[in-house]
Model the fold of this input.
Amino acid sequence: MTAKKVVVLEYGSGNVRSAVRALEAAGADVELTADPKAIQDADGVVVPGVGAFAAVMDALKASGSWRWIGRRIAGGKPVLGICVGHQVFFERGVEHGVKTEGLGEWPGVVERLKADVIPHMGWNTVKAAEGSNLFKGIENERFYFVHSYAVLDWAFDVTQPAMTPPKVTWSNHGSDFVAAVENGPLSAVQFHPEKSGEAGQKLLRNWLASL
Done:
């Protein structure tokens, strides 16, 4: 079986080599690049993210990558966001009182977790969405989180009767927060599958199998 061609988006978000290695271990043919043609031609694109919401959005805009990601999604081509690469697909982020517009694929605000211990760092369980493809066979596993901000409230309006509502997976640290979303070609996870052992590998294999 031919390996799926996956681009890990290189836009200056920090060390993403672990994501590349994890995808290779899951069976993908991986290229780390920001080349527009490679982004459009790949079977799947992974948007990683390390650090602050505003910094990642600035980097996506500076590189022009956000346009190509938007075109992929509009064309029904699969994209997977990881950590801050998950967060930027929401409407906006609020850090230290500063509001930053996100990519706006989903409603919601990325805000500081309501927990006594920040950041949320370590292994945690999730409540997988019914019918989830990403979490098939790993619904009861734990995943590795490192974050201080998340989407705490989800309110998705289905404006067309034929539209299928996104599948939303939750976790809890102090309060509930969105741990993953699956919405047609666009999927994203708040945790790091590349740091989540065999459960993370299985999630990546599930995603690759859907391409």
Summary: The mean pLDDT is 94.
